[in-house]
Amino acid sequence: MLMLAFDTSASAVSVAVLDEARVWSYQEREMERGHAEALMPMIQAVLDASKVSLKEIGGIAVSLGPGSFTGVRVGLAAARAFALALNVRVYGVTTFEAWAYHVGKPAWVVLDTKRDDYYAQFFDAEGKPTSEPSILSSEQLKEKLPFDALGTGAEKLASEINCGLIQKISPIAVSIGRVALGRMDHPLPPDPIYLRDADVTL
Q1: What element of type H or E holds 138?
Q2: Edge-to-edge order in the sheet of strand 117-123
Q3: From 40, 68, 82, 193, which residue has the greatest number of CB atoms within 10 Å?
Q4: What is the C-alpha to C-alpha distance for residues 80 and 99, in angstroms, rounded to an integer?
């Protein structure tokens, strides 16, 4: 089945078209803002490069977060709109799961919160979570050393507490699609995972 996968939860927009056998095309673009404006043109570009139409897409895979409050909402709104228009299912994948996919060793996935802490979850060598998603400070994570880390906050954390650093090779949208394709019979619902309330100023 052809899967359209995308992520707008962090400081990048990542889009991929893939199936069980191969990645047809992908794009990933770093950006701090403008995710909503960038997503649709990138989806069209990836579809064009794959030489497939939206009508051929059999499912939508999207990051549920945690991450940017606005970014998570942008991705989920787009996924639900595509699913409704195409009459296909949305497959939710947590940002933690996507980063942990096929790492092949125990590791903490740490995501940048843009504050003095991290969204964090520990995964075993098979990519299965062995802790609950949490918000942890660098001091709390330091108590868990030694360990390897990956994710949008990993480089910052490594500079703070000298943990091991794992570099992510494949685009995050590809990992989201792979996780979704691997559990099509028991997908997560497309509900956001924020871990913290949005900052609101009145």
Answers
A1: helix 138-142
A2: 134-137, 117-123, 107-112, 148-150, 164-165
A3: 68
A4: 23
Q: What is the pLDDT of residues 122-139, one digit of tens each?
A: 999 999 999 999 999 999
pLDDT for 12-60, tens place per residue? 999 999 999 999 999 999 998 999 999 999 999 999 999 999 999 999 9
DSSP state of 37: H
| Four-CA torsion 19, 24, 30, 32, nearest 10 degrees | -50
Among 18, 165, 7, 31, smallest CA distance to 94 is for 7
Provide the b/e sequence for 56-76 (b: ≥16 CB within 10 Å): ebebbbbbbbbbbbebbbbbb
- Counts for the chain of helices (H) and strands (E), in that order: 6, 10
Distances (CA, A) of 181 to 5, 31, 125: 10, 27, 20
C-alpha span between 152 and 10 (Å, rounded)? 8
Q: Map tokens 């964090």 to a residue.
A: 120
Say whether pTM exceeds 0.85: yes
Question: Which domains, ranges and CATH numbers included, belong to the chain?
Answer: 3-94+170-182 (3.30.420.40), 103-165 (3.30.420.40)
Name 23's bridge partners: 18
The reported pLDDT for the residue numbered 8 is 97
